[in-house]
Structure of Cytochrome c oxidase subunit 2:
Amino acid sequence: MNKGLCNWRLFSLFGMMALLLAGCGKPFLSTLQPAGEVADMQYSLMLLSTSIMVLVIVVVAIIFVYVVIRFRRRKGEENKIPKQVEGSHKLEIIWTVIPIILLLILAVPTVSATFKLADVKAMNDKKRDKDTVVVNVRANQYWWEFEYPDYGIITSQDLVVPTNEKVYFNLIASDVKHSFWIPAVGGKMDTNTDNKNQFWLVFDQKATDKAGGVFYGKCAELCGPSHALMDFKVRPLPRTEFDAWVEKMQNAKKPVVTDPVAKQGEAIFNKSCIGCHAVTPVDKRPVQARTAPNLANFGDRERIAGILEHNEENLKKWLRDPNSVKPGNKMAGTYGHLTEEQIDALTKYLMSLKVE
Ligand code: CUA
């Protein structure tokens, strides 16, 4: 192949990779910029294991280069064979013991961190402190529900948590297996349909400020055509602001709509959408009946459908054809054709659903 062309292709490939991968280094998304106690612990383990691997590679490379140079065939010594070391007990002991030591160096902090991260005693205590924040996470194709059992409130897509303290999670799925992951804050954990997984995370206040107040959350288990679009956002707040948010959610009543267009939207909503979506954060329906995201604070959300920028245009796009935004979602096909006028009215109504 033409060498210039090949170089050019390589160059553009690396250029593309640089552009794409640069997006991974953001403080709201990157595991390499740990944003809390759990992420810190896991990051230290990553550094430790990477250092050990690099050390092994470097030592092996040095020995390899040394051997190649030292024992290469020289002029006049073509028939000379270096000293043979097969069956040397000394060498065999050395190269058995070194990996064992390296594995021990890796194992001790890993096992200790694993036990620390698995400690969810505080959340399972029957008489748990009411300040212990517990969130029931329920994953669905392709959205997230966050229920605060101690406060009696439910929200979706935007997870709100207090900063600088342990937040405990109960993880389940309602349809297929998903995986709950906030990359900057801690490793992922599966949400299963048949059992509950539990873990805790800490959201550091300084890191939250650095991330612009919002962390990105992801589904990390292939769960269908829109798996890669099953995002959520996390808004950590200082404790006092978090308490204020909880109170507002607890006291939120069914919205009083005055705008005539929004009123029209409310009527459409109450006819076609209310069977699945709720508009108050206190939702007493059993979990099986909650088949779509709770929209109580839809107007306060960070994104439309978890992925699109939060504005009226995108909401209309979503209502017009949900499948074009999230292929295979369960809302597509559940209501008949909406006219542009109806879409405008619904948009007005949905954007008026605010708690803050
Ligand atoms: Cu849910 Cu991937």
Observations:
- The chain has a mean pLDDT of 92.
- The longest strand covers residues 133-140.
- The first helix runs from residue 3 to 22.
- The chain has two domains: 26-60+88-251, 260-352.
